[in-house]
Each structure stands twice: as structure tokens, then as C-alpha cells.
Amino acid sequence: MSINIISPTRAPETAQVVPALPQVMLEPLVRATLLEDLGRAGDLTTDAIVPAEARGQTRLVARQAGVLAGLDLARLAFRLIDPEIRFHALLADGARLEPGAEIARIDGPARGMLTAERTALNFLGHLSGVATATASIADAIAHTRCKVTCTRKTMPGLRAVQKYAVRVGGGSNHRFGLDDAVLIKDNHVALAGGVAQALTLARAHIGHMVKIELEVDTLAQLDEALQAGVDVLLLDNMDNDTLREAVRRVAGRAITEASGRITPETAPAIAETGVDLMAIGWLTHSARVLDIGLDS
């Protein structure tokens, strides 16, 4: 069986344009995931039932509304299993999907298509879920200058691609690891002996290119941090009135970032307090998979 090749279309104008991750970053992840699935004997079911010479064609189709992300990983899963499989993308990451939207057409050796299917769908469904969750917040606060950002609460091994999906969904990234910025939290403050002491120790340890963020729970801590000097203030679990007062006191001297149980329903009022950012961990650690399937 074969199909006519359809040239990929551009993503809709509403899509978030985000540079693709280099394949050299993606291939080890996809390869490891395929090897995990193949185990020690390969695809017993497909190899037993599907003739080696059989060819097939199928389509990636959205079964829910959402934001597409992870297309390169899905494409790579098929290619690594069988380079003869042809993957014809019809949309691009960042496209807004409606139920029934055709994402890609795939044709080639049937065995390879079936073997790669689950890995491709796992990546595509999960990352589209992350992008969709991010978009639910970004859309809710679009009338403000506030931006949604993720955290380090990512699934092991998936941080780079999950943070990519956050960008695709219209969000921005917090630090990628412990080594690219300083984030002083309550335990650090307690062990250092206070806010000022923690900031002094951190500043003496880092280079001039590294920013310092400090988590504060009260306005008194905020005032102490402002006096000592800090780049970013993480305003943790503050009510909206306190957030508003915190923004007033900061007066542009530092970036303000709200955190704590933020949902699409609560996000607009939080953004309207004037904070610059809102950090949300569930975008990556608890995002619901977007239902995408392979249909004939």
C-alpha cells in the first residue's frame, strides 16, 4: 500500500513559534525508550503476525483539542526502527488542535510502524499535554504582562523536552538545573542564619553571570531581601492582596514570581496583581496526556 506524498503545511498563525531541539539531543532519549520497549527479544507480537514484506499506511490524528508538541520525537521513533518509514508532517509543533485534526501521514514497512507506534504516541501525547496545560494558563493571563514559567518538577530524563513543550505552549523556562542559577529557599535561609546571610554567602560563591532568586513567604522577608539586593523574588503562597503589596514594595527593583497552587481559574487574578511571572510545577509533573492516536 502507498499514499501520495503531501507537503507539510505551516502551523496556524496562532501557533507558538519555538526553535526545534537539535536531533543530537533527542536521539539518545528516543533510542533509550525504544530499547526499553524492545527488551531482549524485540516485538514478539508484530514479528509473529505481520509478514516482513508487508507495507502499510496510517495517520496521526488528534482526538482532543490541545496544542501539538513532540512531533520530532515521534518522527525519530519511526525512523530509528526502520529508515524506510516515511513520516509526512501536516502540522508543526505549536499548532492548535481540534478533535479529528490530522497531524501526520505515515507509510512504509508495517512491522516498523507497529513497533514504533507506542513510543511515538507516548512522546507526542505527553508533550502535547504539557504544551496544552501551559497554554491553558498562558491564554488565561494573556490580558496581562505576566508570563507563565515551569519549574524543576520534571519527570526524570525528560526535562529538556518537557521544558521545550512548555515553550511551545506559550510559557517560558525557569532554571534547567541546580547549576545555572541560584534559588535560595526557606531551608537554605534557615541553615545560613537569615536572608541577608544567605544572600551574602551565595553572592560570594557565584560568578558575575549567575542570577540569584530568593523565596520569601512574608513581606518582612521581602523587605530584608530588597535591602540586601536580589535579582528575583519568589513570592510563595501569598494571597492576592499580599502579592499586590509585594509588587508595590519591589517597585521594579527585582523580578517578581508568584508560586503556589496556581490553576487556570486562579491565574488571571494572580497575574492582575502585577507580578512578572508565575511558576507552576504541575505543568510538567502532572500534565494530562493529550489523546492522539494512529488511525487508518
UniProtKB/TrEMBL annotation:
Q: Which reaction does it catalyse?
A: nicotinate beta-D-ribonucleotide + CO2 + diphosphate = quinolinate + 5-phospho-alpha-D-ribose 1-diphosphate + 2 H(+)
What's one Pfam family the UniProt record gives for this protein? QRPTase_C
Known pathway: Cofactor biosynthesis; NAD(+) biosynthesis; nicotinate D-ribonucleotide from quinolinate: step 1/1
List, in alphabetical order, the Gene Ontology terms for molecular function in this entry: nicotinate-nucleotide diphosphorylase (carboxylating) activity
Biological process terms from the Gene Ontology for this record are: NAD+ biosynthetic process; quinolinate catabolic process
Entry's EC annotation? 2.4.2.19
Q: Does the keyword Cell division apply?
A: no
**Which InterPro entries would you find in this protein's record?**
Aldolase_TIM (IPR013785), NadC (IPR004393), NadC/ModD (IPR027277), Nicotinate_pribotase-like_C (IPR036068), Quinolinate_PRibosylTase_N_sf (IPR037128), Quinolinate_PRibosylTrfase_C (IPR002638), Quinolinate_PRibosylTrfase_N (IPR022412)
GO CC annotations on file: cytoplasm
Described purpose of this protein according to its UniProt entry: Involved in the catabolism of quinolinic acid (QA).
Q: How does it assemble?
A: Hexamer formed by 3 homodimers.
Q: Which family does it belong to?
A: Belongs to the NadC/ModD family.
What is this protein called in UniProt? Probable nicotinate-nucleotide pyrophosphorylase [carboxylating]
Species annotation: Bordetella trematum
Query: What is the gene called?
Result: nadC
